[in-house]
Amino acid sequence: MTKTYYLRASYAWSDQSVYIIATPSPAARNTFFYVQEIGHFFALSDYFTERERLHSYLILYTVSGKGSLTYRGKKYKLSKGHVFYIDCREYQYYEQDGTEPWEILWVHFNGICCNGYYNQFSEHNSPVVEIIPESNIPANLWRLLEVHTRKDAGMEPVASQIITDMLTELLLCVKIPGNWASPGSIPAFIKKTVELVDKRYAEKLTLDLLAAEVSVNKYHLLKQFKKYTGCTPNQYLINIRINEAKEMLIHTAMTVKEIAHHSGFEHVSHFINIFRKQEGTTPLAFRQMWQQQS
Predict the structure, then answer these.
(1) Pairing mode, strands 128-130 and 82-87
(2) I need a surface site. Which of 142, 211, 220, 265 has the fewest CB within 10 A?
């Protein structure tokens, strides 16, 4: 028996609060991220929402005041600058938690790519992020609310762009905690490792060699490189080699064997297997596809 949507709530918010329900067009449902509901609440002491099995995702930002969120068996305190991002199919309970109104900006949204984005974000484990002062998330929520208040022409693609910007920022927040907005804070040894791989990708590069070149422990390099780039040094090396190989396949008449050698692969069979895994086709088929398009 399929379980049904569950909701228990107290809609205790002030008269100055704004609440908008949106009905996306079929095109938006099939193409974009789209808004289902959006609002700006001044939640009062009795305000709470308890919900489960709603096919929606929720981003909620605390402008001022305090609240709390219970999600995946944990309770989180929320105050100014906190954002939470959750999958509303899972059980959630959030409420006002203080003497002053809890001022929040929030949006329920969906779209064909939502699950993939959320899975990337939820690897962080905590649904709550404390954003930095330079964050664009508050401004984007205000803009999204304004767009749906005015119902401008082109509202749906604009809304999709805004949601994409917020999701991208949230992913960067958790992939590079505390550093996503400040490239200068990336450790020098990570920058140097990236530069080494970019310049010497055709050589036989190992984790031991890279660690020795940048004078750090190889396990520390592995952990920190993945933290700041989202992949391991070996994954980054393979991506660079495949990119170089694709350029040679498109713009030169070199054989597949020659390209394998020049892009850093010792054996052509290994190159073909890696290329197929990355691109879903063989190097030769990739070249033929591009020749047919030119």
Answers:
(1) antiparallel
(2) 220
DSSP conformational letter for 3: P
Measured at the alpha carbon of residue 168, what is the angle toward residues 38 and 86, in degrees to the nearest 5?
50
Phi, psi dihedrals of residue 103, rounded to the nearest 5°: -85, 120
CA distance 262 to 243: 12
Going by C-alpha positions, the residue among 129, 142, 73, 57 that lies closest to residue 103 is 142
Q: What residue segments make up the domains of the chain, in order of their start? A: 6-175, 186-293
Segment 249-273 mean pLDDT: 93
Inter-axis angle of helices 218-229 and 233-251, to 10 degrees?
60
φ and ψ at 124, to 5 degrees? -70, -20
Helix (H) / strand (E) element for 74: namely strand 74-78
What is the CATH code of the structural domain delimited by 186-293? Answer: 1.10.10.60
| DSSP classification of residue 96 | E
The two structure tokens encoding residue 32: 């974009």
pLDDT interval class at 182 (50, 70, 90)? very low
d(C-alpha 187, C-alpha 1), whole Å: 53
- At the fourth CATH level, which superfamily is domain 6-175? Regulatory protein AraC (2.60.120.280)
3-state secondary structure of 10: strand
pTM of the prediction?
0.69
The predicted model gives 226-251 an average pLDDT of 88
